[in-house]
């Protein structure tokens, strides 16, 4: 009889090859985890999950410009038993709450030490939530309606789709390409732009572009 504990299976979804390889090496060195597959294309994630049958999906929030929040929602609906841990460079105070609402169980910044990534994996694999202390405080403040201290307060007013449009604007993507990437009309993108300007109290398109670039550069 084999008494060796069964390792939890992790599917890594990350479009930076060197970073993905480093994660795989880190995870495979652990006695309780194994990498069962890798993927770098949002269009191939569902097939990769069906093939690899992971316990945990370690997911980069933005893959080739694909909206990570919408992707989490889709994957959580298709594969409700697969636990999702987001690993991202994007502002955790803005994106972590959205990722959790979309169906993820955890959120870790890419600049965190490897021990934090492993701690997050071990929490998520048993069904526990994992966020940083900073995000935990932000969530508690919101729950009891205390004034928030995050510099990203204004951006937090945006819907998930508006936030994605805002980020693409900040990355210098023109309106027509934003429409193509998101599968929506140019008119819809322009409507999102106007809503963003209103919520962020911006007076012009130039102010919107400047604010978006500043936010992306500081994300």
From TrEMBL:
Nucleotide-binding as UniProt keyword: no
Modified residues (4-aspartylphosphate): 60
Top-level division of the source organism's lineage: Bacteria
GO molecular function: DNA binding
Alphabetical list of PROSITE patterns matching this protein: HTH_LUXR_1 (PS00622), HTH_LUXR_2 (PS50043), RESPONSE_REGULATORY (PS50110)
InterPro entries referenced in this protein's UniProt entry, alphabetically: CheY-like_superfamily, NreC/VraR/RcsB-like_REC, Sig_transdc_resp-reg_C-effctor, Sig_transdc_resp-reg_receiver, Tscrpt_reg_LuxR_C, WalR-like
Domain Response regulatory intervals: 9-125
Domain HTH luxR-type as annotated: residue spans: 151-216
SUPFAM superfamilies listed in its UniProt record: C-terminal effector domain of the bipartite response regulators (SSF46894), CheY-like (SSF52172)
Record GO biological process: phosphorelay signal transduction system; regulation of DNA-templated transcription
Keyword match DNA repair: no
Keywords: DNA-binding, Phosphoprotein, Transcription, Transcription regulation
Protein name: Two component transcriptional regulator, LuxR family
């Amino acid at each position: 009889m084999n008494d060796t504990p069964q390792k939890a299976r992790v599917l890594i979804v990350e479009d930076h090859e060197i970073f993905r390889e480093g994660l795989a090496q880190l995870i495979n060195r652990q006695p309780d985890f194994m990498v069962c597959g890798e993927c770098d294309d949002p269009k191939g994630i569902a097939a990769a999950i069906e093939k690899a049958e992971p316990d945990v999906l370690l997911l980069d929030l933005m893959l080739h410009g694909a909206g990570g929040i919408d992707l989490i929602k889709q994957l959580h609906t298709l594969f409700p038993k697969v636990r999702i841990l987001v690993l991202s460079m994007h502002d955790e105070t803005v994106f972590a709450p959205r990722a959790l609402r979309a169906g993820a169980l955890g959120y870790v910044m890419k600049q965190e030490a490897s021990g934090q990534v492993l701690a997050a994996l071990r929490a998520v694999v048993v069904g526990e939530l994992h966020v940083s202390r900073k995000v935990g405080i932000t969530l508690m403040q919101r729950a009891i309606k205390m004034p928030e201290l995050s510099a990203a307060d204004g951006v937090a007013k945006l819907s998930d789709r508006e936030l994605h449009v805002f980020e693409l604007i900040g990355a210098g993507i023109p309106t027509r390409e934003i429409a193509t990437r998101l599968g929506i009309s140019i008119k819809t993108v322009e409507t999102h732009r106007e809503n963003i300007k209103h919520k962020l109290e911006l007076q012009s398109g130039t102010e919107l572009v400047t604010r978006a670039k500043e936010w992306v550069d500081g994300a």
